[in-house]
Amino acid sequence: MIRRRLCGEVEDVQPCSFSVPGPPDTAPDPGAGLSGALAGVVSGARRRAVRDGDEQIDTAHLLHSLLQEDSRCRDVLRPHLARLLGLLVQRSIGYGLRWQGTVEDSGSLPVLGHTGWSPAASLAMHRARERAATRGGTRDPRPVDLLAALAADPDCRAVALLRDAGGEPEPLLAALEEDEAGPQEGDEYVRPLDVSELRARHGEP
């Protein structure tokens, strides 16, 4: 309590508090409930964010983890892979310094959401789940679903990286749609079983 003198009298003045509470984190974790390869991708992105001193997972963290964790994502980005990885490893020492202390919101996206994820990264996870749902049933999202969701946001950091590496999102999306049409099961590509060797062993034509 602070006392001050007014016209010969003493008035009690309560001190003011200038702390401003932040918004409650009521949004669900975009990475909750994942299984298979995509769960590993999200875990890797979270580790990268912590290591780089970032408060939020952004789409660049997700892209880096996709390239390290999933062979199909590496294959579809093979022409730009070396350049992409070269830019990504400079996240905390050069290329990514422009992002420090900023929120990745892709322009018109709301800034509120889960505190551990940028709005653009949250949107990408939501779109990955939607893409998986179009396959019918209870299909879990795969790494390629997340890569397609990243490529669909032209203003996100992952697409900025792709362009700086000499690529464009449109051909990537087309390649992923073609990949989606192929035979798949879970997170792995299903290759035709070659039984010719077994038949030869048993003397069958």
- Ends: how far apart? 97 Å
Content-based structural category:
mainly alpha
- What's the story with the biggest beta sheet? 2 strands, antiparallel
CATH topology of one domain: Double Clp-N motif
Overall body shape: globular
Uncertain regions spanning at least 5 consecutive residues: 1-7, 9-24, 185-195
Report the portion of residues in β strands.
5-15%
Biggest sheet: strands side by side, in what order? 1-2
CATH homologous superfamily classification of one domain: Clp, N-terminal domain
Helix fraction bin: 40-55%
User: In CATH, what is the class of one domain?
Assistant: Mainly Alpha
Chain oligomer state:
single chain
As a whole number of angstroms, the C-alpha radius of gyration is 24 Å
SSE order in H/E notation? EEHHHHHHHHEEH
Alpha plus pi helix count: 9
Count of DSSP E strands? 4
Mean pLDDT: 78
Q: Judging by the overall fold, what is the CATH architecture of one domain?
A: Orthogonal Bundle
Give a description of the structure.
With 205 residues, the protein is mainly alpha-helical. It has a domain at 45-95 and 115-181: Double Clp-N motif (Orthogonal Bundle), CATH 1.10.1780.10. 44% of the residues lie in helices and 7% in strands. It contains nine helices and four strands; from the N terminus they run ββααααααααββα. The chain has helices spanning 36-51, 59-69, 71-76, 81-88, 119-133, 143-151, 157-164, 169-180, 196-201, and strands spanning 2-6, 9-13, 184-185, 188-189. The N and C termini lie far apart (97 Å).
